[in-house]
Amino acid sequence: MLTRFGEIVADIGIDSPLAWGLIACNWSYSSQFGWWIKNIDLNTSYSPEAIHAMLDDSISETVRGHIVSAFKNIFISIKPLSNELGFGICDYEEKSNGRKLNSIVRFPWLNPDERVMLYSLYLFAEKCGNYKQFTLTRLLDTSIESAGISPTQIFGLDRETMEKILNGLTFNYPDLIEARFTLGLDNITLKSDKSANEILNELF
Question: Does domain 114-203 have CATH number 1.10.10?
């Protein structure tokens, strides 16, 4: 039986970047996908050997190899996640014994959907103890240790892009969010006490 989240994804269509954007918000809180988001820089080419070396050396060589292979297969197989959302464009060759990965490059989501951003912000707030007021400067600061993962980090978005998204959200969903960036202000307020999952029902 599908959860409400599953129903929304199914209604959107599993081949849609929008659906995978929502999925990526949740996946970012898993250990391996969260590691990818926090450790793989944008617009940088990584060989499989480089990714293998970056993984915790307390993990066995075999398991690290399986993790790199899993990233490769996910990004090759799920085009909306890799090509549209930018999580990992793979340069690879089809061999008789499988896919040989040459390199992976991560880049920003070029056409981010504001509804995904709003869902991600509510998830971020929940993970941070339901703290509903913060700044864009805080969202962009990846050096801060936090249980919440900012949508700017998940999707590789810069300040200018996020300001446009947040201003659009303030206009389109005034009961859910308010952001102000004029007169030296840098304030974001989530105005609803609803959970991230409940917010999805407002958006879809």
Answer: yes
Tokens of 136: 């864009």
Q: Please, which residues have CB within 8 angstroms of residue 65's CB and are 6 or more apart in sequence?
A: 52
Question: What would the two tokens of residue 161 be?
Answer: 């892009």
58 to each of 33, 36, 86, how far by Cα in Å? 18, 17, 29
Q: Is the pTM of this model over 0.85?
A: yes
What are the CA-CA distances from residue 100 to residues 65, 66, 190 (Å)?
A: 13, 13, 45
What is the C-alpha separation between 83 and 90, in angstroms, rounded? 9
Q: What is the pLDDT of residues 39-70, one digit of tens each?
A: 999 999 999 999 999 998 878 888 889 999 99
> Which of 37, 30, 67, 62 shows the shortest CA–CA distance to 51?
67
CATH code 1.10.10 region(s) in the chain:
114-203
Q: What is the 3-state secondary structure (H, E, C) of 88-145?
A: CEEEEEEECCEEEEEEEEECCCCCCCHHHHHHHHHHHHHHCCCCCEECHHHHHCCCCC
Secondary structure element (H or E) that encloses residue 152, with its range: helix 151-155
